[in-house]
Amino acid sequence: MDPRLAPVAVDAMGGDFAPEAVVHGGYNAARKGLPVLLIGDEARVRAELARHAGWESLPITLRHASEVVEMADHPGQAMRRKKDNSIRVCFEAVKRGDACAMVSAGNSGAVMAGGIFVLGRLPAVERPAICSVLPAVKGRPLLLDMGANVDCKPVHLVQFALMGEVYARRVFGVARPKVAILSNGEEESKGTDLTRAAAAALRRSGLDFRGYCEGRDLLAGEFDVMVTDGFTGNVALKTMEGTARAVTDLLKQSLMESWRTKLGALIARPAFARVKKHVDWREIGGAPLVGVDGVGIITHGRSDALAVENAVRRAHDAAAAHCTGEIAAAAARAEALLAEGEPPACVR
Amino acid sequence: MDPRLAPVAVDAMGGDFAPEAVVHGGYNAARKGLPVLLIGDEARVRAELARHAGWESLPITLRHASEVVEMADHPGQAMRRKKDNSIRVCFEAVKRGDACAMVSAGNSGAVMAGGIFVLGRLPAVERPAICSVLPAVKGRPLLLDMGANVDCKPVHLVQFALMGEVYARRVFGVARPKVAILSNGEEESKGTDLTRAAAAALRRSGLDFRGYCEGRDLLAGEFDVMVTDGFTGNVALKTMEGTARAVTDLLKQSLMESWRTKLGALIARPAFARVKKHVDWREIGGAPLVGVDGVGIITHGRSDALAVENAVRRAHDAAAAHCTGEIAAAAARAEALLAEGEPPACVR
């Protein structure tokens, strides 16, 4: 951990198991030397902290926020009307420099809205994206956008690629990230008007752009950054979750069918546990917001203490990479890359 | 099998392992009483048949086709320029009534083009679809379109739903198919202009329409017919394939890591085999073309004899259902369903 950094602001009220699981996760992070600023209903947060021995000697600070964004709340309205909501107070702590980053397991639309509302978009960024980190067979590829932007234009896809490349390089330490656009086939002739325009611009970008990838590449680990519109990204992400669950359910069912296979499963248990840990979203550390002026991480609504602790670590690492300026500079290239491919005005 | 039906025309030249695997699969189907008409280079087909004892006494007939559509061929051009290609000759056999249906493991774009070119679209159908049959935890749900139509309008999605519902009911025997549109969330407010317009029309359709489903529902078996544009459908299908493979690969790797887990895997082997069979695409019987005037089934390019045999059975069952007229009648309802939701002309 970087001792020069301010603590990570943690939305103690966000998620299905808040504040209990969130406070517990923050406490565990602090025990490992990562300073946290817990934000939420102070009495409830204190009551939760009281259950953890010796928290007073850890790098844990508190800040009160009197309101909570519910899952059913409209993100934009919640940010405007509930002025003292815990998500907004987290972002304000980042804005003021009291925190180096924020983490929330709450309403993900509201976290995105709060990031844009309080921190603001980076200068050239048209649409910040939610960046999913995938549990691939090898590596941890990024998929942008996972659902914030349903209708996309070429400039958005190009910016997702440019920003994701910086993130993969600076936060995940991939020396030269391989970038691709998710499409319905590898050939250049495939795709839509949207993907073809974005691909043409990225071929001129100087990135290690590999053209189109397909759904089957998402978890293979051959690419480091894959971009798509938020509709397709959301469908793909949930399809991965559903397929992993279907295969696991079928296997469990099948292993329980006879005495023999039950025994085999018992003996092979360490292997199942390893796979489970590898694909466990709680180990991933959440999905960063990319394109806002600061670091925010969205974690799963069902986050437990382990998921929160890992998200705090990821947030801290992202802040320590100090790459917001580089992301802004990368995004600013998109318009020019797209314009280069257009015929001169006199020919149009 | 239905003794009144003509044989199934099988494209003996299509697929990575043609003609060997295809002829073998046709032979196996014929041994089980399903008549086949093998279409392709007659000398090569006869040479393959000669390897299978007693084929002369089975319901196998041959028809020569002098040309082959290659995987790299442009589908439409191949249909026009290679007039005697095996895919086209298969469809012509269906058109004339010499075959009840056709099966091909060849260039899937060319199979779609051949179906439209030779059989024609059903009267009201704007875009025939490729209908994927999914190996769900329970049942065999349909996903349309899996890639034929990248850019879709609401009328296409509505027709996919109306046609798929007939197919699920008449060919798969689902009494009242549950129909949904694939989207980025279950709430009505989610989706795109495309999905919202299609959903509004389907709510008026009298089908058992359940609104939006998500990627995680594809293999859960809660819905019988799920519709989406061909771009998203193709990404979702390949994401399922890739995820199933990633989970399987991780598990295999992990099981091989120690003596203990190797032993467990050996003992539990029957359970792994059952799961493998359940998700085996070769058991699925291929993807039907829906919306052309006749029955065509596209099977995987890597089809072996088992895959071809199952596709012949599926093609025979689809022909025996005699539901082409009902599919046409269903598709014809789409425009009116969409128009009902529009304000009267004087208000616009």
From TrEMBL, chains A, B:
Pathway: Lipid metabolism; phospholipid metabolism. GO terms for molecular function: acyltransferase activity. It catalyses: a fatty acyl-[ACP] + phosphate = an acyl phosphate + holo-[ACP]. It is found in: Cytoplasm. The keyword Repeat does not apply. Pfam families: FA_synthesis. The keyword Oxidoreductase does not apply. It comes from the Bacteria. Its main location: cytoplasm. InterPro entries: FA_synthesis, Phospholipid_synth_PlsX-like. Belongs to the PlsX family. This is Phosphate acyltransferase. It comes from Anaeromyxobacter paludicola. The gene is plsX.
